[in-house]
Every structure is written in C-alpha cells, then in structure tokens.
C-alpha cells in the first residue's frame, strides 16, 4: 500500500494541468469558430433542388413544385426601378460682404466693449 502514501512525481500534476488547458483551449476555439461561422442564407437554386428532391421522393406533387418555381422566378425577375427623387436646387453661396473695404479696423459705430483689450478692466 505504498501507492497511496508515496508522493507522486512532480511532473504528473503539471502534465494533467497542461492536458486540461489543451482541452479547454480546443473547446473554446471550436465554440468561437461556430459563433463566427458564415451562415449564408440558402440561394433559390439550393431551395429549388431540395424541393425537387422532395418531389422525386413523392413528398411534393407536380402542381406544388410548379407553383414554387413560378414564385422563385418572379422573385428573381428585376423589379421596376424606384422613381428618382429630385434634389432641391443648390443655392450658390454669396461672397462675404466687403463693407469694411478689406481692412480689419472696427467700424466707428462699434462700442469698445465689443473688442477685447490687453488692459485689465478697472
């Protein structure tokens, strides 16, 4: 009964831990891969082939298959174009007014409180 009383070698817990990590990472990767899988909707050709198989198996009669083919052909036909919406006419921008003659001097009617000064008030 020395098996239960002897200490196991140091590498056994490490090996078990590494195996558990490997299994956990594989499971996490598969879950991530499944979540990011491209699930494209079935094309009309794929749907029709499944229905044709059902018809050959006797699960779908010829009238139903014909009706489905007509519906799919109608959905593939180009739809009439939407009416074009007219944009409002563009207003040309008016140039800035040049009432000051191009200089940055204040107008004589402006009060001194409208302009900041470098002097402290007081």
UniProtKB/TrEMBL annotation:
Keywords: Membrane, Transmembrane, Transmembrane helix
Domain of life: Bacteria
Regions crossing the membrane: 12-32
Disordered: annotated span: 71-122
UniProt name for this protein: SHOCT domain-containing protein
Species of provenance: Singulisphaera sp. Ch08
